[in-house]
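Exercise 7.
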Amino acid sequence: MTLEAGTRIGPYEILAPLGAGGMGEVYRAHDGRLHRDVALKILPPDFASDADRLRRFEQEGRAASALSHPNVLAVFDVGFHGDQPYVVSELLEGETLRERLAVSPLAPRKALEVAVQIARGLAAAHEKGIIHRDLKPENIFVTRDGRVKILDFGLARLTRVPSMGREDTEAPTTPLRTESGLVIGTAGYMSPEQVRGKSVDHRTDIFSFGAILYEVLTGQRAFRRESGIETMNAILKEEPERLAGASVSFTPGMDRVLRRCLEKNPEERFHSASDLAFALESMATDSGESSAASTSQRAVSGLASTRRPRRGIAAAAAVLLLAGLLAASYWLGRRGAPAELSLHQLTFRRGIISTARFAGGETVVYGAAWDGDPYRLFTARLSSPEATLLPLPAADLLSVSQTEELAISLDRRFLFGWMQAGTLARVALAGGAPREIAENVLDADWGPVDALAVVRSVQGRHRLEYPIGTVLAESGGWMSHPRVSRDGARVAYIEHSIYGDDRGLVALVDREGRRRTLTEEYSSAQGLAWSPDGKEVWFSASREGVNAALRAVTLAGKERTILASPGRVSIRDAAADGRVLLSRETVRGVVMVSVPGGDSERDISWLDSTSICDMTADGSAVLLTESGQAGGRSYGVFLRRTDGSPAVRLGNGQGTAISPDGRWVLSILPGRTTELRVLPTGPGDARALPNGDVERHHWARFLPHGDGVLISANARGEAARRIYVQDLKGGRPRPVTPPGIAFLLPVPPDGRHVCTAGPDGKVVLYPLDGSPPRELPGLKAFDIPLAWTADGSAVWVRRAGSDPVALDRVDVATGRGTPARVLVPRDPAGLQGIGNIVMTPDGSRYSYTYFRVLSDLFLVEGLR
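Solution. The predicted structure, written as tokens, is:
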């Protein structure tokens, strides 16, 4: 059936045909609701006669529409035109990779760019449990501006079974079945397990990726033979020609990555597409620095062959810190001859490693939450890949004393954002029952004489005590990673200015309470230890985003970079003999939004580290901030519709709020002195609001009538923050709360009050006219209001300490709370707690951010 221009398919108007094939006809169409052109595919008529296929079509359509990533074709809608199903996706301009390869192979640099983008798209899909199963050049699209898009994710499973003739090289995918015994895929790009008809997982896509990469680099198909049967036999038994023997020059690293993808045994491939992407990104970072690379190759020689267990991740481990080692050779070279670095991976599971410490000469103790389980304690010998679970209750590690006594955290829970707390206990590594010491402890460290330094929350403020009971420092934000110096005279720690946020600086306090800062504030700071010689503090931090480098600072405040790589490197411990425990972490901010009319949620994350800032009153759009590598040099502010439409970049900075009419958003530009900007969501000019006495903005919200803003900020010369009100017409900020009262919560709809929280965690309303404040009834300490109902009669609240996170509706007059919902991300592995939550006034729509952190622990020798 050919559709004429002007035909209506649901809300879409057909404009012109784009192509046709065995899987239906594709048209350019116009979506009049959102004023955009889309690609609309009408699927074949035989779908209508196959009830099972129709059911799977709807399931896969929903799965594909929930998959949002810049390197995956965005699916906007699925529906039916009469009895024929259709799929609506974003309209792309460019060519398929098959069409591009018909001209010539890609240059190595361009091939690497394409490969990295494909791997990123695969990683995003696999994280959601979606496997392509029919990855081939026809399903890879390169847009005119060089962006790579993977096509037909999820929908590729719906096509029909191919025959076994020569045409199978271009044959489509067979229908998905969960049982083994069915051949699924396109001959020439299938994995060995697909050829055998066995059950497959995400590693089948990694094999197909390897076949594509080979073709991109050489112009030849890796396994093409005279017939489909012979091709599949080659996949099972033969190896393609090595890149080193090809006519074009390639790096040995590229050949090793390619071989790892094409391993016959899936256990020996890359463990995940994320690891594959990291390996490729490392090579992309290295290109153009041949002299540094040659030095690094000498430094890391033998890494790939030191140990090669059959787990696929072990091979990837050899390259996880390659880019970091390249950077290290540069920085180390500035201090003298490059050090001989060695790297040894200690963990091989999926989840978070919170803390790791040396315990004696050859033993490491660490706390980890694997595969979504609670934190447990493990020991490992440095000479063995095996770990032993300690016979203790669920607990996290905080520190190990010189006498091998453990400080542990029982009932460890997330407070807010990156903050965790539990009950401090001590127990011998040799065994026994834990003895509880103190509650509400965030972190702890043993001193040289077995006295404990602790950070704990007391009446809403965080304080550092050493020994327990002796307060050395307090913070209006929070503190983490206390580390006692080797002589016991000082404690270094990270001070975070914003409750729950991991931006922070390194501070130092002595036993008399004399405090000083050693660094400026970083956008992310996680991990700290004293250097092996005790003359520096080594810490993990990033200027922008979450991908931290390993840095050092002297007690005089002189900083240097020790190790940098694409990705996050966190220091866990440093021994006096020079050995260091580092974790390599993949950190991704994920934003989920509720789907209207049901209990399901959709992932609307845009780039690599997305966070939710605000939502329109009708729930149709959200304000996002990108703070990862893809966000650019500054934080990126994006507006995105909750139907899954592509995000629109509005500008740089940290987004905070959408105006009541939806025409403007607030953004904070970082810097020594921050700048609060008003950005248009449509036509209009961005403008900066005057700072007045304000030096550092932390958050901002619009007043309900849209004529002013409330700001949480520091004035020049003031250490404590407070809340200010500012007229949007250009007036200077005016303080409305005393110093120390600065937690800016959703504004009541009357526009006459500031909603905030005091040091005790109680929610308080401060009138803008200066009248006395009053507490909001029905809320416990550290309950967090999320949104007000339109009439101000009730507030939606996140209950303090609830795990999983519980949301209630609280009546303002009576204080009576009614349970609303519980938030539980589907995949708990690596879950780093739920951060910001936004809701519509009627409570029908909500969106929240959570961070997923996946860690691998390494022993590194040679850093200095």
